[in-house]
Each structure stands twice: as structure tokens, then as C-alpha cells.
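Typical record was shown:
=====
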Amino acid sequence: MKLYFLALYNTVNEMAYETLKDHGVDIRQYLIKAWADLCKAFLQEAKWLYNKETSTFMEYFESGWLSSSGCVIL
């Protein structure tokens, strides 16, 4: 798990550095928030699966758009 974290950490920092260098905008905080939100959505879905719960449509809708990686891809 540590290896995956370090790879993601380095990738986010590299992307933020390139954007800062090319455009003068520091996007690191936004990238970190997007990845944190994605991980929280994955965790929520894992909890539902582990507890054998069926989420309501609204619960899934709130979590599903994040877990489909939409924010991170954009």
C-alpha cells in the first residue's frame, strides 16, 4: 500500500509542478482534494458491500459520480 501511495503522491506533485511551471497556477490542493474524495467514495462503496447493504438511489448518486473517477479525469 505504501508503494501505491508514494506513486500517487509523486504523480500529483509532478503534475502540480508542471502546471505551476507552465501556467503559474498551483493546482496541488485541488488534485489532493479530488483524489481524497475519490478514495472516500471507494471506501463508502466498500463499506456497503462488506455490510451487505443496499444504498438508496440518492446515497449511491452522491457517491457514484465520485467513484466513477469523473472528478479525477476532468
